[in-house]
Amino acid sequence: MSLFAFGPSRGPRWQLGLQAALGIAVPIAAMTLLGQPMLGYIAASGAFTVLFAGSLPVVERARMLPFVAAALIVCAALGVAAAHAPLLVSIGIVLVAIVSAALAFGFRLGPPGPLFFVLVFGLSATVMRSAPITPAGYIAAISAGCAFSYLVAVSPLVIARVRAHHARPLRELFPGPSWDADARMLVLRVVLVSVLGTLTSLFLDPARAYWIVGAAVAVIGIASSRRAALQRATHRMLGTIAGAGVYALLALLHPSGLWLAVLLGVLQFSIELVVVRNYALALTLITPLVLLLLGAATGGIGDMSVAVERVIDTLAGAALGALSGLVHPREHSRG
Fold it and tell me: Is the pTM of this model over 0.90?
């Protein structure tokens, strides 16, 4: 897909965008009003729950999303447990990436694949090292965020015709575990980029390994194709550089509290509208969203050195993700 062209529409996405926006904005706004904004920033990570199984009927999402939420909470707990031991964080990044990829591809989880499990582990470890919060408090906050996002996602069930839709059993929603040639190749690529990305971080900053690996995993996506890898790498690199510029402009406003909640909600809503049609444009919005959320949780909004680091990390990760596409035999490159 061209950097300047939009792919075909896959149906209206405003409902999913609204759910994701509420999932990230409401916890921040509510906890800000209660005088505990830090808990709101952490709980907002639970909004990632909404991003899965977005194309399925609500009755089927109601069955699938608890497993996604549980996996995100487990990744957060592992990140919290390893936070103060850099070696454990590095090992954890590799293990979380590989295990989440094996499960996501083996059980046909679909987009966005293993990406957010890696990010939640890394964000949790990063925030836990600097935020004044106990491990139990952190896990409770993100669990509450996941639960709230789940309720938002299944809220259409209050409508009788939505509830009347027949839901497939779990064994059909999560077919597997089975790993065909494409799934095995995708897992192999995640193994390669998680190990090499973590090793690369040793020359930059081990604490940033999760961003390098996350960028690489995002480039791999869920498509078994060399061409797709190269396209996504280009989109991710240019989109993240542009997104860092957007973050720099927004950070000058020093958003906080309710204003930050609204801003993140608008960004999240916009992301869901464009992510399936132009990945570069989506990254232009995703990058400032994640940087603002991380900066709010660590007290570092406005630190331009973070934006520069994220551009460097993304360039490294995207390059690894693209190069990992070369392991595909040519007969498997379907463009």
Answer: no
